[in-house]
Description:
By secondary structure, this protein is an alpha/beta fold.
Amino acid sequence: MNQQVNNINQPVLPRRSRRLATLIPASHWISLGYSEDDAYMMEDLQNDMKKYCDNSGVEIDLVHYGNFGNDVPFSHHDLMIPHWQKLFKTLNGRTSVQCFDIGGIYMPISVLDIMFPALQSMNLDCLYLCTMGLESDGFQLLSSFIKHNSSVTRLVLEGNKFDDVSTAATFSDAVKDHPNLEMLSFYNCSLSSNIDFLRKILEGCKRKSRLGLVISLDSFGSEAVSVVADYISSNHLLRSINLSDNNIKDSGAAQLATALKNNTNMHGLHLYDNDITEDMESCLRKVLFDPTSIDSIVQSNHRSRVYT
């Protein structure tokens, strides 16, 4: 993807325009080979940035831009670097900002290097980084940010995929030591495509009694289900696991049901939008409350809830 981004012809604007981050109109993006729709997206992005930069009294609750629902982020152009610099310089120190949400546009390391220090100064509660094409260097910066930012309680990573085990391990270590994280979401991150990635993420959540883990739109195969079932059976402190929309079938649900019998810490297992029959739903409910006998009632998992 880097190769694709870097292949775009990049004639430069006059030095004065670059220094002052002057708005680059859609017509210029079209002259660089962008489609009309993409050209106006680039213009809109700059206008959004300008709005926050020119109105220093306006606090930012949401920054969100890009190709929604698209697995491929909108390509970066180096002409945008002065605009990113000005945006994050303006955001630096805005401690009243609670949520930062950006997605659908590729963020190279040259932009991430100026983004994360600004985010570090903002005392964020929620951070949404969606379909940004994060690679090893980007995940390393994110891991460092999480490790040194105790204010974040919700972290959503959508459409960003780990590309090596060491990066997943570094991120897992940052999560493991975070004192306040309450929700960690991997939506469409293909964790099940490499079981080692999934194991590393789960390993970082072992001691997080307040954390809800979301792994969705991941098309779980039998091996991925087994990894999660073993984790649940080990009775770690994770508060809840959301496995919605993962194409889990009755055989996988049966493994999860068996695992729940040995778990007394989890409060919720979410299995919405999977391929689970009504009979298997009944089996899952029976794990939580089995009225067959006094002993079965006592041995039921009364703490957890299963949502299907």
